[in-house]
Every structure is written in structure tokens, then in C-alpha cells.
Amino acid sequence: MSEPNPPKMPYWHVYTDAEGVSRQELFSIERFTFEGINPETAPQWNDKMDPAPSVVTFTVLPVGWVGEWHENPRPQWIAILSGRWFVETMDGHRVEMGPGELMMGEDQNTKARDGKKGHLSGTVGDEPCTMIVTGLQVEPTVNQPGRFK
């Protein structure tokens, strides 16, 4: 089997800029290597993140749920499993995400402006939004958009 071209996996990065304003941009994870997870398995594409203690939470946001303006509690990967939700950052950018989409929530250390701090999020549509949230016990970065690309 010949090695295919490396994939790109899109993710939204919600981050804090140098002025303390939350922003979000679409980037791609791109540092994949083609290898088996052990010598007995066929090769696959893997992008191994730096090791970090983490907390995994399965979340179900009910229909009509709105999480008022808040920061992510820690840097965390959020993968949408079913349903839809939105995230609006302090810069006014609103993004809706659905099944299979990925986000890194890293808007810690924002500075309150016009009653906004962090981000606003909520469900979209008439079904709950289910997700898996992997919170990393690491120091959040500031003004490093797309740092996982």
C-alpha cells in the first residue's frame, strides 16, 4: 500500500488576543504521520498532541440552552457528536457547529468589554447538542491562534 497524502483536520480555535478580546478562526491540524499505533496494526494517520493531564466530560446541552458570556474553564477540545450549537466571541464572530466538527476552547484571560467576557454559546435547532469535551490541565496561551496546525 502506498502512503497517501497527509490529511488536514479542520478545527475552530477560540482564543484570547493580545488585547484580551476573544476571537475564533478556522485552522487545520496538519502534523500527521503515517504509522500504526503498534507494530501489529496497519498504518493510519496520527497527529499526537503533547501529553497533558486531562478531564473527559460527555455533555448534553438541552434544546434552548444558552451559556451566558463565560470563558472556557481550561483549554479544551470539544467534538460535536449530534445536534448543533453556536459560539459567539467578543469580536462579534458567531460560528455554528454540528456533528463531526471540532473546536479548541482557549479563551481564558479575556478582559470584560461591553458586558462581554469570553464567549456566548447555545444550542441551535430542535434537538439537544451532544459533545465530548477533553479539558487539558495546561496553562492557556494568549494570542497564539492556530497553535495546533
From TrEMBL:
CDD domains with a match to the protein in the record: cupin_BLL0285-like (cd07009)
SUPFAM superfamilies named in the record: RmlC-like cupins
Biological source species: Methylobacterium pseudosasicola
Superkingdom: Bacteria
Biased composition (Basic and acidic residues): 108-117
The protein, known as: Cupin domain-containing protein
UniProt-annotated stretches for the region Disordered: 97-126
InterPro entries, alphabetized: RmlC-like_jellyroll, RmlC_Cupin_sf
